[in-house]
Write a structure and sequence with these properties.
By secondary structure, the chain is of the alpha/beta class. The protein has helices at residues 19-32, 38-50, 67-79, 84-88, 112-127, 143-151, 163-175, 220-223, 240-252, 268-277, and strands at 90-93, 96-99, 133-137, 155-160, 181-185, 201-206, 253-262, 281-288, 294-301. The chain has a seven-stranded mixed sheet, sandwiched between helices. It has a two-stranded antiparallel sheet with strand order 1-2.
Length: 309
């Protein structure tokens, strides 16, 4: 008896490349464009277009109709060094996912250390029976303030002089269901900023603009897409706004309150000197960021004049 002949299903004339092949090609394209993390970005864009939080190419099925065109367009945007966060519309920061949009500074992982120190301080205060109040100056999209609110029970006030940033920070707080967070428009140089909170703040955080006017960022994602308002700190050394943060912190923090402020690696010594010259700070030191670079000022408010420790 002859073996039974099973029917062979018809093969489409043009099935197109599979998902793995498309991601591999995209990775090569992004590598040639100098994108720092080409494979990660190629996969992240595919996951975004597929509506998935993560993507496993091993188990992924065939892409839906129209995916190839949409993927090619999105990858080309990344090839031209548009930030990945703008393409996918969000970014991860510690334990939250934040909305991101053009016109507002993109949160960076390096700042997670600052947020973590703020969380540790708030938890210690809460363990002592206090109800901590946190102010986050130059908040941008709200990564620090929202993270503190998500990880603790603190009341958080976020401030930025960009109305677009304040709106986005408020939306991020609402998306995380944190009604104890407020976001207001304000200029850190205003001596009356948050005057109703003078001497009442437990923790003050800030990631202010600090780039000098003659120092252009190298990365196209920063140089061409982050707003100048969030980059350049003013003055010949870029430290006008960080110095304004120091003045605001000296006024707003209660005795014993903690200041945490990010700055450039090359500014560590100058920022410590500025903090020491600002009445009311002690315990002044520099901590490393997530990459190990000295980019985080830590200081405590005292009732009297400050001095370096």
């Amino acid at each position: 008896m002859r073996p039974r002949a099973w029917p062979v299903p018809p093969v489409p004339e043009d099935t197109g490349p599979g998902l793995t092949a498309m991601v591999t090609a995209a990775t090569q394209l992004l590598t040639q464009a100098g994108v720092p993390s080409p494979r990660h970005d190629a996969v992240a864009i595919a996951a975004h277009l597929l509506g998935l939080p993560t993507l496993s190419l091993v188990t992924a099925g065939p892409p839906p109709d129209g995916f190839a065109r949409s993927y090619a367009e999105a990858v080309d945007r990344r090839r031209r060094r548009e930030p990945l966060q703008h393409i996918v519309g969000s970014t991860a920061f510690r334990y939250v996912t934040l909305l991101v949009e053009p016109g507002v500074f993109v949160p960076r992982p390096e700042t997670e250390v600052l947020a973590g120190l703020a969380v540790d301080e708030v938890r210690a205060l809460a363990a002592g029976g206090l109800a901590p109040l946190v102010v986050d100056l130059c908040c941008g999209a709200g990564p620090i303030g929202v993270s503190v609110a998500v990880e603790t029970s603190a009341t958080v006030v976020m401030v930025d002089r960009s109305t677009q940033a304040v709106d986005l920070a408020a939306r991020n707080a609402r998306a995380c269901d944190r009604p104890q967070v407020s976001a207001v428009v304000g200029d850190v140089r205003d001596p009356q900023l948050l005057s109703e909170l003078t001497g009442r703040v437990d923790v003050l955080t800030a990631n202010p603009p600090y780039i000098p006017p003659d120092a252009e960022p190298v990365d196209p994602e920063v140089r061409d897409h982050d707003p100048d308002l969030a980059l350049y700190g003013g003055g010949v050394d870029g430290l006008d706004l960080p110095r304004a943060v120091l003045q605001a912190a000296a006024r707003l923090l209660r005795p014993g309150g903690l200041l945490l402020m990010e700055h450039a690696e090359v500014q560590a010594q100058a920022v410590r000197a500025d903090a020491a010259a600002t009445a009311g700070f002690i315990g002044i030191r520099t901590e490393p960021d997530l990459t190990g670079r000295p980019r985080l000022l830590v200081a405590r408010r005292t009732a009297g004049t400050g001095s370096a420790a």
